[in-house]
Amino acid sequence: MEIRDAHFPGRAPLDAYGEGGFRFAEMSHRGSLLCVPSGIYGWDVSAPENFSQNAFEKVFQEQEDIEVLLVGTGTELRLLPQDLKTLFREAGILADPMSTGAAVRTFNVLLSEDRAVAAALLAVD
């Protein structure tokens, strides 16, 4: 039996968030999400304190297709660590932290405009 990382192979707007998860593409997911050009993935980060280069590895793997990274930091805005901001800048990615709700709304707008956008979204209750 093969066990793979669960993901949705494509780009889709996010229909809802809250209660510890997200809804998109007629599916639901409990936990945090990472939305990159190759698809929507479950993300094993649950708090801003866990933000690290390793946590954003998939973003860096797809950096040539990402101009803007929206980082949903939960119910309140939390700033990104300076070393992480530097890594994003060096990769040519504008990383913009905001509350998860604001990040979901902004992601949907930029996605509808066919922009090179990605999102890293912490689940909220």
UniProtKB/TrEMBL annotation:
Q: Which InterPro entries match?
A: MTH938-like_sf, NDUFAF3/AAMDC
Q: What does UniProt give as the signal peptide span? A: none
> What is the superkingdom listed in this entry's lineage?
Bacteria
Full protein name? Mth938-like domain-containing protein
Q: Which organism is it from?
A: Roseibium porphyridii
